[in-house]
Specification:
mainly alpha, 8% strand, 4 helices, 128 residues, binds zinc ion
């Protein structure tokens, strides 16, 4: 199995994957247990794929958010997708995507996904 196919399979099985600090986190274990040896064989490639996806995820969000920033005055709450905050519990209030695995036990208090947090910072840096 290629790393790209493995990534698709993880997601098809309801698994989630993210880079947390320096390590690749995959879960929940019940969804992806049968793939453990594949993870070990493809860990570096999976990390590269996930890293590339993250860069792309931040880039499109930052582009949309930068357009929401006026040249001066107060900066509004930046959102990647209109109406995402209505999507409900367990999803990002900015983009509406389900949260990936987060570090530091902040899951319950986090309103925005990591990509949206980084995108908002980048958008403000660009626009101001
Ligand atoms: Zn988000």
């Amino acid at each position: 199995m290629t790393a790209a196919r493995l990534l698709e399979t993880i997601r098809e099985l309801g698994g989630r994957i993210a880079i947390v600090g320096d390590s690749l986190r995959i879960g929940p274990r019940c969804a992806v247990a049968e793939l453990e040896s594949e993870f070990r064989d493809h860990a570096d490639e999976l990390a590269t794929l996930i890293g590339r996806e993250h860069v792309e995820a931040v880039a499109w969000r930052a582009k949309i958010m930068a357009e929401q920033i006026p040249p001066d005055g107060p900066i509004p709450v930046l959102a990647a997708r209109e109406g995402a905050w209505l999507a409900g519990h367990g999803v990002c209030t900015s983009c509406g995507d389900r949260f990936e695995v987060e570090s530091g036990g902040s899951f319950g208090r986090t309103l925005r996904c990591r990509a949206c947090r980084e995108a908002a910072e980048a958008a403000i840096r660009w626009a101001r």
